[in-house]
């Protein structure tokens, strides 16, 4: 896949993406949590709903040591990698 290639998402993929995003309370959760680490990545998810822009940042979302809202955030992010046919490296 090329870096600037557009990959369409199916209705099923979008449904599978929006379900964990809602479970993560994307539209109401604090934009940032005070979490960092020595290794990992910042995940930034952006969206527009009812004309309002929203960005949420999470440090290396993983299933270990995370809240019930961070796990579905990570699930939604991982699905975006899958839809884009991008291979993730590492745990987060």
Could you explain how this protein is built, in words?
Helix 1 (11-23) packs antiparallel against helix 2 (70-83). 29% of the residues lie in helices and 17% in strands. It has a domain at 31-86. It has a two-stranded antiparallel sheet. The two termini are 22 Å apart. The protein is of the alpha+beta class.
Mean pLDDT, to the nearest integer, reads 82
Q: Walk across the major sheet and give the strand order.
A: 1-2
**Per DSSP, what share of the residues sits in E-state strands of 2 or more residues?**
15-25%
> In terms of per-residue confidence, which ranges show pLDDT below 50 for 5 or more consecutive residues?
none
Span between termini: 22 Å
Order of helices and strands: HEEH
In DSSP terms (H or I, runs of 4 or more residues), the helix count works out at 2
The amount of helix comes to 25-40%
Q: How many strand segments? A: 2
Structural class: alpha+beta
Shape: globular
What integer value in Å does the Rg equal? 13 Å
Largest sheet: 2 strands, antiparallel
Task: Please name the defining characteristics of this protein.
two-stranded antiparallel ribbon, single chain, alpha+beta, 29% helix, globular, 92 residues
SSE layout and pairing:
Elements: H1 11-23, E1 42-49, E2 52-59, H2 70-83
Antiparallel strand pairs: 1-2
Helix pairs in contact: 1-2
């Amino acid at each position: 896949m090329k870096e600037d290639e557009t990959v369409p998402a199916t209705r099923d993929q979008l449904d599978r993406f929006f379900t964990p995003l809602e479970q993560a309370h994307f539209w109401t959760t604090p934009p940032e949590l005070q979490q960092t680490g020595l290794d990992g990545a910042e995940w930034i998810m952006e969206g527009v709903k009812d004309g309002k822009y929203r960005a949420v940042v999470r440090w290396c979302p993983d299933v270990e040591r995370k809240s019930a809202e961070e796990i579905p955030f990570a699930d939604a992010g991982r699905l975006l990698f899958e839809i884009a046919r991008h291979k993730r490296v590492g745990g987060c």
